[in-house]
Structures are given as structure tokens and as C-alpha cells.
Amino acid sequence: MVEVVKKMMMSDPKWQALLRLFSDKQVAIRVLRKQKEVLTHPDSLQMFEEGYDPATQDGMVKFTNIYERMDRTAMEECGLGDYIKDLKLFKILKVIVPLYINDPEIMAELEYMVKIGNLFVTQDIGSVPPDVNLVSMETKQEIPLSQFHSRKSRPLVIIASSLS
């Protein structure tokens, strides 16, 4: 998959310029740190909270749009806005991750991703997770996850995926 993304980017001159830019590891780290600052800023978290509703049909589109705005802000604040001004869809991670997937220093910069608001929450092993409501896509009825967990002595595993 990573190689497919790299090949796709190499066929477009705009993406080639970004790949050259981010091939400088220090630039990649600087942008990732700025991205973290932008994404974890209270104003950004509020935008996600108010603008993203996973129960709506266009929820993922809204999430993507907000996230892209945050990425563009990070690039502009690093003085690199010219690299992305002509790209219709831009995601920092789409460029950096394929380049540095096996680089522990770069991957360590992304560890904060699991801590942004309620969107990327993880739990410590052995901790009791908060009960959350699942929303039926058909009836829009909210059902507590705990209702599905009948064997409390066993761990509950949720496997989620997306076709998009």
C-alpha cells in the first residue's frame, strides 16, 4: 500500500515537490510538530466537536474537511503554504507516513494522535472503558455498548472498518 501511494504521488509534479520537501527529515518533524500544535489547540478541538457528527451521513466528509483545514494551517504556519496551494485535497500524513513508515523518530511524533479529544481515544490495558452509545444507522436509536457485552468476564473486542 505504501509503495502504491508513493507511485501515485510520483506521477504528479505537485506531489513530487512535496515528496522532495518532506524527504528532509527535519522539515517533516517540524511540520508534524506544528500539525500537533494546531490539531490539539482548543479552538481546533472545538471545531471537531461542533462540526463532526459520526451519526450523520456526511459526518466523515465534514471530519475530513476540518482535518484538511488544520493540515493547511500547519503548513502555512511553517511558511510552506505555497507547496499545497494548488492541491485540491491535502493531508500531511498521506505524504509523510509513506516516506517514514519505518522511522521510529518520525512515528514517535505521531503518538499524540490517539489523544485528540474524543475522536482518537485509547484505553490503558486492563482499565474499564467508558460506556459509549452506538447509533443505529437505520433507526438513529442510541444503544449503549454495554448492552452488547453480555459476557463481562471476557474482554469485548470491536473491529471497525470503512469502505471509503
What strand line-up does the widest sheet have?
1-2
Low-pLDDT runs = 115-122
Count of extended strands: 2
How many alpha or pi helices?
Answer: 7
Indicate the percent of residues in helices. Answer: 40-55%
In what range is the share of β-strand residues? under 5%
Provide the succession of SSEs: HHHHHHHEE
Global mean pLDDT? 77
Radius of gyration over all CA atoms, rounded:
19 Å
Largest sheet: 2 strands, antiparallel
Overall 3D shape:
elongated
- Ends distance: 15 Å
Question: Which class of secondary structure composition applies to the elements?
Answer: mainly alpha
Provide an overview of this structure.
With 164 residues, the chain is mostly helical. It is built from 7 helices and 2 strands; from the N terminus they run αααααααββ. A hairpin with a 6-residue loop joins strand 1 (133-135) and strand 2. Helix 1 (2-10) crosses helix 6 (92-100). The longest helix has 19 residues, at 59-77. The radius of gyration is 19 Å and the shape is elongated. The two termini are 15 Å apart. 11% of the residues are buried. Mean pLDDT is 77; it is low at 115-122.
Secondary structure: elements and pairs:
Blueprint: H1 2-10, H2 13-22, H3 25-39, H4 42-51, H5 59-77, H6 92-100, H7 104-109, E1 133-135, E2 142-144
Antiparallel strand pairs: 1-2
Helix pairs in contact: 1-6, 3-5, 4-5
Keywords:
single chain, mainly alpha, two-stranded antiparallel sheet, 2 strands, elongated, 48% helix, 164 residues
Quickly describe the structure:
This protein has 164 residues and is mainly alpha-helical. It is 48% helix and 4% strand.
